[in-house]
Amino acid sequence: VVCDAAQILGRRKSLPGVPTLERLTRHTDDNVAVAAVEALGRIGSGAGAEALMALVATRSFFRTFPAIDVLGKSGDARVVPLLIELLDDPLYAREAARALGMAGDTRAVVPLVALLQLAHESLVRAIAVALADLHRRELQRFGSAALVEQPIASPVHGPLIGRLLLGALAEADEPEQAAIAELLGWRPSHETAAALFDLLGAAQPVAQAALSSLRRLGRAIDPQLAARLGHAGSAQRLVLLPLVTGRSIGLDSVSACLEDPDPAVRTAACEALARSGDTGHVAPLFDRLGDEDLRVAQAALAAIQSLGSAETERLALQAAVSADARVRRAGLRIISYFGYPKGLAPLLDALGNSDEKLRDVAIAGLAYFEDAQALAALLGAARHDSPGTRAAAVRALGHAHLGAETRACLHAALRDADAWVRYYACQSLGKLHDDSATDAIVALVDDPAGQVRVAVIDALAQMRSDAAAQALERASASSNADVRRAALVGLGVARRPASLSVLIDALSAPDAATRLVALSALAGFDAPPVLAGLRRAATDADAGVASAAIGFLGSLPGPAATDALIELLDMPALREQAVAALARPIEGRVGGILAALENRAAVASWLVAALARMGRADADAALVAALKAPAVTARRAAAGALAERRTPDARSALSAAATDDLDPEVRRIALMALAALEAESPETR
Amino acid sequence: MASLELSPQVFTILCGLIEEHAGLHYDLLDRPIVAEKLTPRAVERGFESLLDYYYYLRYDPGGTAELDALVESLLVHETYFFRELDQLETLVKGPIRDRINRGERPRVWCAACATGEEPISLAALLAEHDLLGRVDLLATDLSARALERARRGEFNGRATRALPPAMSRRWFVEQNGALVPVAGLRESITWRQVNLVNPLQVAALGTFHAILCRNVLIYFRDETAHKVVSSLSGALEPGGHLLVGASESLLRFGTSLRCEERGGTFFYEKVV
Predict the structure, then answer these.
(1) Which of A216, A227, B113, B181 has the most neighbouring CB atoms within 10 Å?
(2) Residue A298: its chain B contacts at CB < 8 A?
(3) ipTM score of complex
């Protein structure tokens, strides 16, 4: 009964129950004590940390293990020295290492690395997981994790650690393999790269970690990559191709993958060739334009467009007269993309083809030719018998110059029998800001086709007349969500002060999409209610709306937006996004963060994280200043962040902190940071 | 040109339509996956913007068929034979056999059966206990393509990864180097296309003594899952059972069904 009661208190996250649970951790019955420990763990937030630390000190076998686990998750910095002490006890070292990883405190790095060099295989695996956890935390906070990587990457310990990690791989489970793969990426060598290549065939999280580490190793892996790609089957090719980043591996083996039986491999090969920037392999990409798999054909097209080459024009003109309709369409797309003057003839020729898709592609391309023949062809296509071709032509005319003929054609298209022609007529007239079309467009506001009713509002958003503005305001109260959203976008474009209240109201719309559109429209205004609206939306129940609001706050200069973002640091779920937004180098941000460092000790490490990620001289100077902040959390975080800064100011601030700071932890981190800087200096290398 | 921008706004609007149509919920982290499926379809249909494509799905007479095809491309059909076997065995040896012993003919529905591995596993277990001909088995899914594969007996090679050896010998045969269930199992099942989010389609199926809806609710938002569970509850006979996946729990939806543990697995019973 007592066990059940303890568990219920835990499940209910009962804070008033904490003193009772603390007492129960000392119960004579092990089961009760363990239930109490687990309950304290469920309550979280460091509940009962002192009682749990006392429990660990007793080294009672059954109670210590669960207590270590809960302490690791407690987020209480006081538990770290105790956990480090436990590393010396063979019975608890593995559990303590795991807990130190969860605790995310860099004080654990040096003891963990020291133990790793003496550890048996299963402990090596546990330490690898812990170091990978610590690394992830540091990266999340500061965008870099030199303090964690440095001891592993060091020429002193690195070779031994590399061998131990490789030796521990065979018996490792998936999370352990993923952690080891991550650590192997911190210290490049031929052996570690070979092991990482082998791990690419493992389960997804492991393969992903191996892939990231191999990417980190950069061009150093190219000889091995080329050799493996040359002998790989489809499955291996699929995991190896994403690693191709340049031409140094010799692209013949990549080009050979264009003939692989698996379409996913062919797609990846197209993408790899595009990334290589090597124009020598454009011709085989043209061969894939008619691939039976749509993704491959689209990837080949994208690669050709991204690479360009002296040969591309000839090959595109050749493709544009291919007997294969898909190749021909792709050829026309390439001609349009690069605007080859010689391509006008095949585009015009395609306009007379019986294949509607081919005509559509030609029409889209002609829109980008500033040529009387091209315009005449588009105007002619707008009178074609096929509604699809008329719609494509009317859409294309939206990119043309608004001359008398184009205007007359588009106005006539507003009365077309086909809904999509009317849709694109509205859209094109809007794009061309043809105010003379306002009345004709407003007349379609009750069109039987839903997409036309929406296009009417889209178009009116681009007009400047009073009639358009009034129609927009009416539409912003429409019961049709699409019409309402289009109107809100329009109000955002027009930015009339009178529309602000409509947009603020729409932030309370029942559907997230409408709130998101209203928010985006609101963000364009420069008025006091905007900030209040963004602040409210930053805590919206929908993650997309909240994320957008934080993003907009991040783009606003000035102290008020900075304060709003700093407030969000108190909310764990929003903290990461708030840091990212604070890290945007916007006017007034650095000053605001420095001011907050004076009086917001609880979030100081996050404020420092934002400065660290900013990567600007004034932010670096602020980091140096933070090393003298009153809050010890700020100074500790600043010392860690400065490990990545290679400026003389950073070095001298760290040197001073390493000897003068009152906090031993700041002094220790500063020393480690100096060691990391030393390891990276050219003389050392 | 092959890549169209999927802004957060258009992503939210499109996902709202997909959720309304099929119940599938996507959040911002899924944006690259959704974009990968959407973009080639929109480009192939000649659209230059995904908002235009959305209006096509929403308003064009051909939009519903295209939306079905889009949802089809988004569905995950990963499953295997005899997944969460304990629960199936408990159902067969417990509630189904009890009803047959009472002279009833139980009706069992595998909702969201994907490519049919679950209902075929159930059919094999029933056959193992000489009960197959005494039960009506209905299997449904949203995906017409998945159902077609189930009817034809085309299975992914990994679907047989957890075959118990005894069942494999009796109820599976080798075909082109792969193990496939004997045709009689497939033929004992009625296959139909049903959208679980549409309560009218669910109600039209009649009532059942057991409904299996395993590893499906995880793809729905809580609100949608609650509606689906309500309509499945409505389709249960009094005393009938709803079975969900081991990692799913109905308790947080406040269901009227009673949760009970049977043979180490959870059954939700419609109280008489």
Answers:
(1) B113
(2) 2, 40, 43
(3) 0.70
